Amino acid sequence: MGIVIAIIGVLSAIAVPSFAKARARANMRACHANQKTISGAVEMYNMDNGVSVTTLDEALANELVAGGYLTAKVNDPGGGRNSFNHYQLTEENSGITCTEHGSRTKGSGAAVASAGGGNSTSG
Length: 123
Ligand SMILES: [Zn+2]
Known about the structure:
Blueprint: H1 2-49, H2 58-66, E1 87-89, E2 96-98, E3 102-103
Antiparallel strand pairs: 1-2, 2-3
The chain binds zinc ion.
Zinc ion (ZN) binds at residues 31, 76, 86, 98, 100-101.
């Protein structure tokens, strides 16, 4: 009897940390998927309204939902209720980052700034 309990104890000691890790990984992936969704919604909102929003706040989130850009205010996976505020706009237009899980695109310098060549059309 004692040996069975000991074996169960050892097995759960092995399993619990790996479950926790898998869960954290799943939350991060889901969070990054949410960032992509929110980014797209913000982009569409910007285009439709001819604006360029700079802050992702409660009011904008409500507008995104009201305008049908988002079906619901998404929560940060693992962040609990009302964790939409984990998502923030980054410097680049409609780039989203999370205060818990970081950005979808790891902050490596992949951004290319185009210089010069101002093509302005007037009409
Ligand atoms: Zn997150």
